[in-house]
Design goal:
- The chain has a two-stranded antiparallel sheet.
- By secondary structure, the chain is mostly helical.
- A hairpin with a 5-residue loop joins strand 1 (about 5-10) and strand 2 (about 15).
- About 50% of the residues lie in helices and about 5% in strands.
- It is elongated.
- It is built from seven helices and two strands, in the order ββααααααα.
- It has helices at about 25-30, 35-40, 65-75, 80-100, 105-110, 115-125, 130-140, and strands at about 5-10, 15.
Amino acid sequence: MKKIAPSKVPNGQTLVAFRESQNPKKASSYKNFRELRDEIGVAKPRPKKSRPRAKLNRTKPATHLGSILDDLLKEEGIFEETQAQAIKEVIAWQLSQAMEKQHISKKTMATCLNTSRTQVNRILNPKTDVTLSSLQRAAALVGRRLKIELV
């Protein structure tokens, strides 16, 4: 007997359709799986329902969210701390990009600054505190300068 496209029914049994030449008795009673499925009472597969899409309100113009975030950080009392961390990350990223562009390794930078490679790692790590003189020397080495303002 050759099985043709078996399908599972809920109780775990397998439905099998036979070709007419192999078993004429069963083949004559069930022409295809649809008839067999309908007779046994197996539920037809349901089509997937599409989710309703959210309607966008295009009448209101987009507002700038920057001031809302600043207000939230000020309410939480972490505005200055967050701003200082962001500045450190930008400076560290700019130094590492300038080093990469000029093909300066950390070891080479350490020898030019007369310091250890660990100190260069601290300069490039935004989570550590670094002196302004160290940042100025590192910036000068890559051809940049450090500018600090009081606002």
